[in-house]
Design goal:
It contains two helices and eight strands; from the N terminus they run ββαββββββα. A hairpin with a 3-residue loop joins strand 5 and strand 6. It is globular and about 45 Å long.
């Protein structure tokens, strides 16, 4: 099992606002590197996309605990099974801290190859989340 925790980011929005954004998977596209993503499809509780020259990824909402946790899991189109938890901790009425926890069923050999790019990808997602709410 491979575990990755992203950098923690302070978001300029309430925990409830960030939770509502993350629990709607139509919004997940805003957190992705647009120049590397293709075949984006989404509903409020599921999304799928391909990363150019890499694998297709499918995510679905497994559960949530408002306003502190959004739990996503991989779908059958993903090459590996994984859980992705978006954790949100209130800091004040208008700010929160957020990060992602990833746990994937990746063998040791593949982990050496994919852990660094996955860490970079999830940290990018958190940076984009921070940007989304700075612009508002």
């Amino acid at each position: 099992m491979t575990s990755i925790q992203t950098d923690k980011k302070i978001i300029a929005a309430s925990a409830e606002t960030v939770f509502n954004f993350l629990v709607d998977l139509n919004n997940f596209n805003q957190l992705l590197p647009q120049d590397k993503v293709e075949k984006w499809q989404s509903t409020s509780d599921q999304c799928s996309f391909s990363i150019k020259k890499m694998a297709a990824i499918g995510l679905k909402l497994q559960g949530s605990e408002a306003p502190k946790l959004v739990h996503l899991v991989s779908t059958d189109i993903s090459p590996i099974k994984f859980d992705l938890k978006c954790v949100i901790n209130p800091v004040s009425d208008v700010t929160c801290e957020a990060y992602m926890d990833f746990e994937g069923d990746i063998n040791m050999f593949m982990e050496m190859v994919v852990k660094a790019p996955l860490t970079q990808f999830f940290n990018y997602n958190m940076h984009k989340l921070q940007e989304v709410f700075q612009a508002k």
